[in-house]
Each structure stands twice: as structure tokens, then as C-alpha cells.
Amino acid sequence: CTSLVAEDSNGNLIHGRNMDFGLFMGWDMKNRSWLITEKLKPLVVNIDFQRGNKTVFKSTNFAGYVGMLTGIKPHAFTLTMNERFSLDGGYIGIVEWILGHRDGMWMSFLTRSVLENATSYEEAKSLLAQTKLLAPAYFILGGNQTGQGCVITRSRVLSLDIWEIELKLGRWYVLETNYDHWKEPLFLDNRRTPAMKCMNQTMQANISLKTVYDVLSTKPVLNKLTTYTTLMDVNKGILESYIRDCPNPCMPW
Amino acid sequence: QFVPPYTEECQTGMYPPKGPTFKGSVTWYTIDLDLPPSERWKPIITNKKAELVTLIQAIRDLANAFVPSGKLIDLVDKDLPLIVNTLPHPFNEEIKGIATASGVPLGEVVLFNIFYEVFTV
Known about the structure:
The complex is a heterodimer.
Chain A: E1 2-7, E2 13-20, E3 27-28, E4 33-34, H1 35-40, E5 44-51, E6 54-62, E7 70-73, E8 77-83, H2 90-98, H3 107-117, H4 121-130, E9 137-142, E10 149-154, E11 159-164, E12 173-176, H5 192-202, H6 209-216, E13 226-233, E14 238-244
Antiparallel strand pairs in A: 1-2, 1-12, 2-13, 3-4, 5-6, 6-7, 7-8, 8-9, 9-10, 10-11, 13-14
Helix pairs in contact in A: 5-6
Chain B: E1 22-25, E2 28-32, H1 42-66, H2 71-84, H3 91-102, H4 106-113, H5 115-119
Helix pairs in contact in B: 1-3, 2-4, 3-4
């Protein structure tokens, strides 16, 4: 996955993401693609969740998956999550759950309840940072005011780091793939450097939904695992998603 | 660009989406949160039933490739339904509603929904 939140020169916040999934789940030699990734693409749907005929939040889902991986609470905040690998992973959380320790939350149920119930960036950030989880994760959150963009690095129990947009330091965007931002990514899977190169080349003055789509269309940020790209503008309340393909030659991840 | 990781120049002019990297747009649905949780996903699942069944079958095939005896699928079909009632409301009821609307066994819909935690295995 690649997720980013960027602030343009007018203080507007734009959130973009590539949803990559299906690693090592059946490589199709003939088509040079991942089996499960290709089966997921036709299941991608956009959903407008309403209460009293009013939009509460909007999301991009795989049909049948009730949790949230990508969503927007219009005029309030935007949220995506990326996978985080850790030996202290979800399987430990599942064993604890089966043994009756149920004070943790399933990751995508947390994101769903945040999108459904939180009303502000700060409240969402607090819930995502402090709620105990069954599995580690990265939460990428954007708000509706200048400076409101962060990557929350979560272990199952702790919030290890909250990395925020800091215009005074020249950090006009935050970008997360699947590795802690203070560490080097796995050399076999460095999508971070190409993505940040393109963001820096675009420059803050030119950032928009269009140019974020360009960044997320650049190989290897776009790869064989990419099922869809989502673009969100919180103040306009826009969420739009596109199913992707990666023509050969293209990285398997 | 022709050697892994196939890093290319930063793309420009890709929007509006077109060309070989654009596979299709995404359909919009509405979910009414005032409905009982078990009813909320019915319209979507009715529309996407065939694709969901195809995905689940692909996962079954993969599971059988790893565990040819079928014991893994047995475990999913027999034991995972037991976990659904431990899941918080409304997710438990929504998952049951999806299993009913799709005809996919409940354990397999549960697996799909907790896959993020399972995948770390």
C-alpha cells in the first residue's frame, strides 16, 4: 500500500492511496499477476453510508468486507490504513481473543467506528492512537485545517509514533508505504523513495487530485498488487476511486 | 525501467484516468445505517454475489493447495462461525447478513473479514 496526505499552497488537504493486497497468494504465471489481487478488483465498491438519509461517511470497500480501509467523513477528516509487519502480529491477537482476552479491537472495525462516530481530526487521531488493537497497523489521517495530516504507527498495544505535516520544517506532506518512516524500507520493496521523489518533483504549488493520481500511477508505487487508487478532498467532500492495472514490465510488489 | 524494480520517470497527465493502468471506475452504493445490521449489505451483496463467490473459491483453492487434506477449510467452516458471536455489534450481525445474502458459508465470510489479522500468519 501507499498512502499520503498533502497540503497544497492554499492550505487544502488532499489524501491519496493505492490499495495493494494479495502478496504470495497464488502467482498466475501466464498473466504475470497475483490470483487473489485479480479476484478482488471486481469486488471494489464505493459506499455512501447514510443515517436519516444523510451521509455519515463514504468509503471504498471490497464488497462483503464490513471494516474500513479507505474512507472520508466529508468536511471533517479522511482515513486510510496500511499494513504493518511485526512478529508481534495479528495471530497473537487472535489467540488472545480465542482465549477470552477481548479488550483489543479488530483493526478494520476500529477504522469503521472512527469514520462512523468521530466528528473531528483530533478525536479520530486520539481513538486511532490509543485504542488497543489485535494487529499492528499504520493509520494515515487527514483533517480539514492546515497542518492536519499524520501517519500513526501502531503496535498492537502502543502508539509508537505520530508523524505530522510540519510546514515550518518544509514537510508539506506525509507518505507511508509499509515500513516505519524512521527506518529504511526493505531494499527489495522500496516504493517510498520513488513516491517521495515524484511528490518533491511535483512540488507543493502543483499538488492536486490530478498530480497525486500521477504519483500513485508511477511504477513501482503502482505494482501488480495494486487493486485500486483512491483520491479524497476533505473540504470538497470528494472520494473517487479507480481500479488499476500494471502493464508489464511491472514489479510483483 | 526494464529491470526490477522497474522504476519509471514520474508520471504526468494520467488524470483523468485512462490507458493501460486504468482498469475501470468503481460503482457507488448506499448503505442505510438505520436498517438492521443484517439487512445493510444485502443490495451490494446481491449485486456482487458472483464476484464474491469467485474470490472465496480462489481462496479455497489456495487453502487446498497448502493443505490438500481439506482440514484447513473444515476448520474455517466448522470453527470460525463460533467466533462471529464474539465479534462486536454491529459487525457480527452484518457479517451474518452477508453470509445469508451471498450463500457463502459463514465461516468463510468471517475469514474474509478478519483476514488482516490472519494474514500476518
